[in-house]
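WARN  no MSA supplied for this record, continuing single-sequence
INFO  ligand: 3-isopropylmalic acid
INFO  echoing inputs
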Amino acid sequence: MVYSIAIIPGDGIGPEIMDATLRVLESIDIEFDSRIVEAGDKAFREHGSYLPNDTLEAARKSDAVLKGPIGESAKHVVLPLRQDLGLFANLRPAKSIQGINTRLMADEEVDLLIVRENSEGLYSRVGGRKADVSFDIKITTRQASENIMRLGCHQARERRKLVTVVHKANVLQSDLLFQEVCHEVGREYDDLKIEQMYVDNCAYQLIREPSQFDVIVTPNLYGDILSDEASWVQGGLGLSPGANIGNLRGMFEPVHGAAFDIAKQNVANPIAMILSAVMMLDWLGTTHSDEQSSKWAHRIETAVNTTILQGHRTRDLGGKLTTKEFASHIIRNL
Ligand code: IPM
Ligand code: MG
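INFO  complex generated
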């Protein structure tokens, strides 16, 4: 199997962590037909477009997209890509890595998965402004709510069989529909435990006792916010990968942003980007019934864990290694 991959390095630290990730991918036994394309702030400066047609075409034609963080223009790149490619779900795991101080009071193991609705809600991009009044319309449909809940339930079946549906249905009409649909869908999965939680309480519980969560199914904006929070609970934004998936396509990207303050210094932590590539390999393995791909996903993840256990760290985790040096340790462990 040779997979075609569209690679978008992105802005800020994007090119550095993408470079580290591509070195890891080059060192494994899977062949890629990869194409590097531009999007974001730099693409705008150089080509006059945040998301050039060429990039969009490459993304459409590829088996998967591997994307770095985008800078100030993220909403003109990330949201159109998710919508165009039909990536209705955003999977964002937060899992403790042995050897990394989670900076929580209790020494708690965290292993949760945020399943974020990725196509509508407050990200529907319907809104406007008149003088000093502006508005964004939150659209919630039965179909999208059903899709995300089903996917969340399927994920939970492979995990600890608990789904927490997170919303604010006590206040918002749109969330009431979301909650109703999730409740209906959940009834079809009698092997799972389905719970409901208001989003404000969820934000609190994520800090108070993160180990209580397995799969969190939630609308778009809450998923965005809670995934940054969960990232801290796990040990920091440098560690958190993400998968945008639809029925046919997938785009894999870290949860974090472009971090301009530390860009071009070769100090950024590449783990989130590398683990996004792991999610890509795992997804390719599942969707193409390709054991090799799934096997390498697992091996890279193990190599990352081993590297951490050996005490190697980039600056964000209290170490001194450069991005390149850290990637070299992972490759050696592979
Ligand atoms: C993320 C980012 C994006 C989002 C922004 C940059 C459009 O915060 O992927 O979490 O809100 O989805
Ligand atoms: Mg975000």
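The mean pLDDT is 96.
INFO  checksum written, moving to next record
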